[in-house]
Specification:
Order of helices and strands: HHHHH
Low-confidence stretches: none
Protein name: Endoplasmic reticulum transmembrane protein
Number of strands: 0
Mean pLDDT: 78
Shape: rod-shaped
Membrane topology: Multi-pass membrane protein
Main location: endoplasmic reticulum
Pfam families: Bap31, Bap31_Bap29_C
Largest sheet: none
Number of helices: 5
Helix content: over 70%
GO biological process, one term: endoplasmic reticulum to Golgi vesicle-mediated transport
């Protein structure tokens, strides 16, 4: 095998190893995404499309060369007078052309596969990152909603306590007003009883004076009647 095809075969083996690493669960998509976004690969990614088309162009050229060699040695007409050594060389060259065809063909195929796998792994890692960010946002929103609900509950409790205090104050005020009105009624009743007692006393004094006057009159009238009988 020539040096060029040895390099292409080595490139094919490296592609096979990379495909196995991407397919097998060796690393998580998040780690692959971090590896793809490293500084070195980020610099290469800026010219990735150029490298991709360059590699594809080189591999396609060698594939066409292998196809040409295959057609060249496949269309060779054998004759009975050809020496066995020449026939062996011809078969060996045809075998090498077919081998080179398969090497370059599989190399082109794996280049396309690797590009697609890298795209899928990066997309999956981005989706995981977005889902983690969404989960964190949802958790923070849930925590904020819970804190708001707790604040509202405390505010409602404070308002309920204030309402209870106001209701108690209103009840106390009503009770004070009732007691004040009862005290005023009792004062009025006492004043009425006092005035009634005073009027009774005045009436008693008047009746006493009249009784005394009547008694005096009776006494004077009795003395006058006794004097007239003696005469």
């Amino acid at each position: 095998m020539s040096l060029v095809w040895t390099l292409i075969a080595g490139f094919l083996y490296a592609e096979i190893a990379l495909v196995l690493l991407l397919v097998l669960p060796v690393a998580s998509p998040y780690r692959w995404n971090r590896f793809f976004k490293s500084k070195f690969l980020a610099l290469l990614a800026q010219q990735a499309h150029i490298y991709f088309f360059l590699i594809m162009g080189v591999l396609v050229l060698f594939l066409l060369e292998a196809i040409r060699e295959m057609r060249k040695y496949s269309n060779h007409e054998q004759s009975g007078e050809v020496h066995l050594n020449v026939e062996m060389q011809h078969s060996m060259r045809l075998f090498r052309a077919q081998r080179n065809f398969y090497i370059s063909g599989f190399a082109i195929f794996l280049v396309l596969v690797i590009r697609r796998l890298v795209t899928l792994v990066s997309a999956q890692a981005n989706l995981l990152a977005q889902s983690e960010a969404s989960m964190k946002q949802a958790q923070s929103a849930t925590a904020a909603a819970r804190s708001l609900m707790e604040d509202k509950k405390t505010e409602k409790a404070k308002e309920a306590g204030e309402d209870t205090t106001l209701n108690e104050l209103n009840k106390l005020r009503e009770r004070v007003q009732e007691l004040t009105s009862e005290l005023n009624r009792e004062k009025k009743d006492k004043e009425a009883v006092k005035s009634q007692a005073e009027s009774i006393n005045r009436e008693y004094d008047r009746l006493t004076e009249e009784y005394s006057k009547l008694e005096k009159r009776i006494t004077i009238g009795g003395g006058t009647a006794t004097g007239s009988k003696d005469d």
